Prior knowledge:
- The protein has two helices and nine strands, in the order βαβαβββββββ.
- With about 140 residues, the protein is α/β, with parallel strands linked by helices.
- The strands form three sheets. Strands 1-2-3-4-5 form a five-stranded mixed β-sheet, with helices on one face. Strands 6-7 form a two-stranded antiparallel sheet. Strands 8-9 form a two-stranded antiparallel sheet.
- The N and C termini lie far apart (about 35 Å).
Amino acid sequence: MTPFWLISLGSPNQTALDFLGNSTRIILAIERSRSVGSKFLCLPELCLTGYGCEDQFLSQAYLRQAEREVVKLLDYTQDFTLLVGAPIAVNHQVYNGMIMIQDQQILGIVPKKKLAAGGIYYESRHFTPWPVNSHTHIHYAGCDH
């Protein structure tokens, strides 16, 4: 018999600017995924902070708090893989990133390359698109990757 992975997709009811509540709901989603035998959970972009944080995405204090919250999530990923969206600061630019955490380590971060524009969407006000074919080593919340 071929082994398979049960992959969970989650969409917690996140609230902008509510780090404690958002982190708690992410941890509950991890626990719920584990309870059905899943070892992989994929969450939406900006799930950690909520999507509508507006100009808070440009605040260094806010970005540092987001980093601290990501580090807290490491404790819940033993024998588990988590993809979670959060704002990422690199070289004085802010990116809309997806963070891959596995076995209590950050494996990588994939910043968004194409930002939503038009209508009610204006991501370029807060985020910089990641350059195509660009890679970098960043220091993130005390973790090297």
